[in-house]
Amino acid sequence: MNWESLDKELSEIVGKRIVLSQMEYSDENYDDLEEELHDLEDDFNENYEDELATHLEKIYAELKSDTDILLPTAYLANQYKELLPDAKGSITYEVEGQQGVPIESDQLGKLDLRIVLIPNPARFVLLVNGKQMKDLWRSR
After folding, report:
1. Cβ 101 vs Cβ 83: under 8 Å
2. From edge to edge, which strands make up the β-sheet containing 123-128?
3. Percent of the chain at pLDDT exceeding 90
4. Could you tell me if 41 and 54 are in contact, meaning their C-beta atoms sit under 8 angstroms apart?
5. Alpha helices of the chain — where are they, by DSSP H?
6. Residues forming beta bridges with residue 137, ordered by sequence position
7. What residue segments make up the domains of the chain, in order of their start?
8. pTM confidence score
9. Taking each helix axis from N to C terminus, what angle separates 30-62 and 3-21, rounded to the nearest 10 degrees?
10. How far apart, in whole angstroms, are the C-alpha atoms of residue 87 and residue 103?
11. Are strands 101-105 and 93-94 parallel, antiparallel or unpaired?
12. What values do phi and psi take at 16, rounded to 5?
């Protein structure tokens, strides 16, 4: 698996989601950007679904969840917070609130649990009651 390509594609999708979230529906470029974003997401699912589904199966088993596993792009947040670039100049991201895919876990009870996909590095993160708690899987 080429993790750099995965992360590059994921970062591009997240970047476009951020731009789109800051635009008004009435913006003349909104529809074009939204269509471009959907094409990128379709390509991402086609390229990485099998590999990421394997990691999600392990995550769900660890959390003792029988919630259905979805396409990788379903785990993307609607809003990402950009953090300061790291030493290599890569932007890192953080997610808060009710983002990602809600799951049920026999292990963790009635908490609001969600899994979200975040780039740089690509990783699935557990959100508990809207707070980013721990990385469940990292690409590197």
Report:
1. no
2. 101-105, 109-118, 123-128, 131-138
3. 79
4. no
5. 3-21, 30-62
6. 124
7. 3-138
8. 0.91
9. 130
10. 35
11. unpaired
12. -70, -35
Q: What is the DSSP string of 42-66?
A: HHHHHHHHHHHHHHHHHHHHHTT--
Sign of the C-alpha dihedral computed for residues 119, 123, 126 and 132 taken in this order = negative
Distance between CA atoms of residues 25 and 1, nearest Å: 37
CA distance linking residue 52 with residue 31, whole number of Å? 29
Distance separating alpha carbons of residues 137 and 122, to the nearest angstrom? 8
Q: How many C-beta atoms surround the C-beta of residue 135 within 10 A?
A: 12
CA distance 108 to 51: 26
Q: Give the span between the Cα atoms of 132 and 41, in whole angstroms.
A: 23
Q: Is 18 left (phi over 0), alpha (psi -120 to 50) or beta?
A: alpha
User: How many whole angstroms separate alpha carbon 93 and alpha carbon 88?
Assistant: 15
pLDDT tens-digit readout, 18-63: 999 999 999 999 999 999 999 999 999 999 999 999 999 999 999 9
User: What are the CA-CA distances from residue 138 to residues 7, 26, 121, 122 (Å)?
Assistant: 11, 38, 7, 6
Model confidence at 92: pLDDT above 80: yes
